[in-house]
Amino acid sequence: MIQAAGYATQLGSQFIAITNGKQWIISLTFVQAQAIEDRQVFVFDSLESIERNFRLFWDCFSKNGIESNSIAESLIDSRAKPAPRKLSGEIPNYPQISDRNVYLNELSFVLNKLWDVLDTCEHSEEFLNHCYVESSYNKDITTYAREILKMRSEADENLRSTDVDHVVKVSDSIKSGLSDKPFVILGEVGRGKTSFLDHLRLFSGKHELDKYIQIQLNFLDRPDNEGEVTEFIYEEIETLLLNEFKIDIQEDSIVRGVLHTELGRFRKSSKWKLQSGDPDLERKAESDFIEEKIRSKHKYFRDLFRHLKKGQGKSIAIFFDNLDRRNGQIQEAAFLKASSIARDWGCAVFICLRPETFFESLANGVLDSVAPKTFTVGQPDLSLVLKRRFDYAKRITMGDIENPIVKQFVNDTHVALKLPSVAEILECCRFSSRKKTSAIQMLTALSNSNIRELNDLAKRILTSGHLDTRKIISRIQESGNYTIPDFEAVKTLLYGDYKQFDPHSSVFLNLFEVFYSDRKEHFFRILALEFLSRFDKATEDDGYVSAVNFKQYMQSYHFSSDVFIRHLDKLIKGKCIKVQNLQGRSGILNEGYRIRSRGVFHLYEMTSQFQYYDAMIVDTPIIDNAVKTQLFVGDDLKERLISTRVFIEYLKDSLTQLHDSSGRTLISELLDKGEKEIDEIESSQKAPRKGRHKK
After folding, report:
1. In what helix (H) or strand (E) does residue 641 lie, and over which residues does it extend?
2. Distance separating the N- and C-terminal Cα atoms of the chain
3. Cis (ω within 30 of 0) for the bond into 95?
4. Cα-atom radius of gyration of the chain, to the nearest Å?
5. Which fold has domain 519-686?
6. 656-680 pLDDT, tens per residue?
7. Helix locations, 380-522, DSSP H
8. Distance between CA atoms of residues 300 and 286, nearest Å
């Protein structure tokens, strides 16, 4: 076996096997931290054993079996030696709170309150007017949506001039262009789908929607599961009609108006004739008839909306809001109900879905008979989104916004005294956004183009204990402006409220983390991100790598399934990798992975920055006690530079554990960039300051 393992290593074979023709043994070529005599093996000790266990034998030795890699996990023994203790374990009260931001306690309270006000106002006409940024791609979607609304109202107008039950009388020209399917908007969570619909309602499509009763169904935290979707929709529509339009669907006059035609037919029926002459029996028969009709809610709402169209001269538009934040089962159930509503009720229905939910339903055949019109929202200029939001926030602090919620905030005695300082800080961020500095590019990448995440990251920078707000305000007062440098923005997100890097609270992920005492494991995350980056197409529905191919690539570096699963979980939770699960009609689950912009930023930007390596020292297990004694954790810059250089040298030395030369070259180049920045910082420290002479 040892001899075979030597050949297999040279040839890059994953498995090794020995046989004398009757007895067969197979194992993995490499298992981390495990000698060959301690490995798991499959043994077939006779031809009879092969016959009894032929399926397993086939998986072990056939071409198809080897290619499927199905036996690899069974051959891995996870009893590898765990990684040593991190340096963070030796720091008292780790992670320690940072107190550099002298205004933190005062300003963070005001800024957090301000952000709450912005979140409360973001669906208002005033907020959208000041802050909405339209993608050029969305203009075509807006045009189409307006056309749909116009045709729907024209069709309803035609109905109002005829008998509401005779839909066939709608002109062919209107029917040919009118869709009885939902208007489906696709996009990841936080991509601006809700803002697009809000802007359509209040601005771009306001003229068309003025002729509509608009009903917004908010799926943010209800219903609890897909089985409750239909009842939730009915109850919400009933509640909204009552509260916003004063239409009580249980009111006798409305019920009788809706069922007027059917009540007339009922009174001519034989069932009614049998009760004729007895007022009590007639009332009961009529009551039972009405109750039965109301109980069938789908049909009752269909008749109700036709009644409202004719009685109030309005069409009906229903918006399924925040549905994209719910799980796939709820989204699919709501979509199917939205389809039946659009078809049967004659309503304009707008619904937002995540792309993976839509395409999985399509693959499963759920949408075959529905075939809706779908549109993907375009991404707005995120730097402009941030700039407008800061401008709006600054106007709030200056008292320029007329809004009841804003007035209450501005008049709060705990807030009012600090508003001028907050306004000055927001002014500096405005300049940063307008100039498109590296800080803004970083926020765009780390947010994965999620507008909500972008705003949250900006708030985290402003309220961080590492942002020197006294210096910022002083500089603004001296020169009139201040741009937050990219290294300060990085530092605030690296450390948050602490002096040391804390993996549980930081936006960033430690790329050099290990779970076992295997030095090559320091590079798993870099190798994984680099591999996925080769297939990145910069779109949300493309660039996925199959789980099989991804796992096989990582196993070519002799990483076990256990290591693969644990690191993959961290990369997904750290929002560096996205996973896609598509289950086709065959029932086979096809997993795919793709890199996200946050992962790209980690891979190609953070690995070239001194402060990233400096931060990761406390969180990286060092599998060399001699190196560990040379590392220093503290505030002195000179000592930190020395310590970081030792850390990078340790990582370079660990590269010898990688047998693949291309992998070693890739990581070595990234580490060289980190060392280069250390050189530049050391040179700047030695250079004489302006206005002073060398002694």
Report:
1. helix 637-654
2. 69
3. yes
4. 33
5. Arc Repressor Mutant, subunit A (1.10.10)
6. 888 778 889 999 999 999 999 999 9
7. 382-397, 404-410, 413-416, 419-435, 438-446, 451-462, 469-479, 486-495
8. 16
Burial 582-608 (b: 16+ CB within 10 A, else e): beeeeeeebbbbbbbbbbbbbbebbbb
pLDDT in tens, 93-134: 899 887 655 555 566 777 778 888 888 888 888 899 999 998
Strand partners, 320: 217, 351
Average pLDDT over residues 45-62: 86
Structure tokens at 415: 């807030």
Residue 605 is encoded by which pair of tokens? 């930007």
* Biggest distance spanned by C-alpha atoms of the chain: 119
Give me the torsion for CA of 352, 357, 362, 368, rounded to 10°: -50
Encoded tokens for 430? 């405005």
DSSP 62: S
Band of pLDDT at residue 162, cut at 50, 70 and 90: low
Q: How far is Cα 375 from Cα 333, in angstroms, rounded to an integer?
A: 20
Query: Taking phi first (over 0 means left), then psi (-120 to 50 degrees means alpha), and beta for anything else, what does residue 498 get?
Result: beta
Whether pLDDT at 540 is above 70? no
Minimum mean pLDDT among 110-124, 445-459, 460-474, 640-654: which range? 460-474
Domain ranges in the chain with CATH number 3.40.50? 136-247+314-376
Q: Which residues make up the CATH 1.10.10.10 domain(s) of the chain?
A: 519-686
- Domain boundaries 136-247+314-376, corresponding CATH code: 3.40.50
Question: Crossing angle for the helix pair 419-435 and 104-121, nearest 10 degrees?
Answer: 70
Query: With 80 as the cut, is the pLDDT of residue 477 above it?
Result: no
Percent of the chain with pLDDT over 90: 35
Q: How far is CA 40 from CA 22, 30, 553, 681, in A?
A: 20, 11, 22, 50
